[in-house]
Amino acid sequence: MSRESITRLGMAIIAGASIFACSSSVWAEDLTFEEAIGQAKTAYDAEDYDKAVELLLTANRIQPNSRLLLNIARSYARSGDCANAVAYFKAFSRADDAEDSLVKTANKEADELACDAFDDEASGRVMFSSVPTGASVSLDGKELGKTPFETVLLGQGEQKFVFTLEGYETFERTVKLSPQSDATVAASMQEKVEEVPEPVVVQEPVRIPSTGPDYTYHYVAGGIAGVGVGLVVLGLVSDLVLIPGTDEEREAFAPGTSDYQRLTEQRSSQATMALVGYIGGAALIAGGGGWLTYLLLQDQDEESLSVTPVFGSDHAGLSISGAF
């Protein structure tokens, strides 16, 4: 019996077996197992081997059967894809339920392909699934397919697979792949939760009542100016009251007498007192008044305080007006 006859016979045996039908939206076109097998046989007979592979993979997802792996390998071989053909021949040989006689046949057919493109250091079958289905799976930025699906000949070692599906959070899973060993990668996708931005609460600034300016230095400056005024008054008293009184009293004595000399010294002291009062008072009034003016300028707005130069025929100065 020819190899092609064996392949067709195997498909017919599987298609005719009394296996329950399983219909689900998970599988392509919502096919049942029997429908997938029947359409795969039709595609194979029509030499549409790529379609046959797709339908056989679908049937194997519905109801796993090692004989399907053998038929997938032969379909790949017919299509000229020797690397995938050898990969599925070896996958069939690893299956626990594979018949020994068919394993020998599969190994022989794989050897006859003499496929240089096959990498025996690469992985075996890697099967992907997700809930919900339809997630795109990528490896190193390259899309491998949409769940559910399987592929072969991936690199060995730790590989990070990324599942993406619109409306769901990205799912990542790292799996260690071994040469010519099978693996299953499943993902449970979580729906994205739209973040509702928190309302922005605009708080009114806290207004702290103003306690007004600190007038401590104002009092000191005013006190200095006040002392100056007192000294000027003392000078005026000495000049206008005490000195004239001494002069009047001194006129009653002859020059050279002891009383005259005493009153003369007294007048000299009173004159010195008047001079000190005038000079010291003027200095203190100028200093304290200037300091007080400066402090008031710091406390007042420009619009509430004005300083205007004033000139006259017999005087000059500054006119300060405002609310103090």
- The average pLDDT score comes to 83
The helix content is: 40-55%
Please name the fourth-level CATH homologous superfamily of the largest domain: Tetratricopeptide repeat domain
Q: Which structural class should the secondary elements be placed in?
A: alpha+beta
Major pleated sheet:
4 strands, antiparallel
**Number of structural units classed as domains:** 3
Any idea what the radius of gyration is? Answer: 57 Å
> Low-confidence segments, ≥5 residues, pLDDT <50?
5-9, 11-27
| Percent in strands | 15-25%
Q: Care to count the β-strands?
A: 9
From the spread of the alpha carbons, the general shape counts as rod-shaped
Query: Which CATH class of the largest domain is shown?
Result: Mainly Alpha
CATH topology of the largest domain: Serine Threonine Protein Phosphatase 5, Tetratricopeptide repeat
How are the strands of the largest sheet arranged?
3-2-5-6
The SSE order reads: HHHHHHEEEEEEEHHEE
Task: Quote the distance from N terminus to C terminus.
Answer: 123 Å
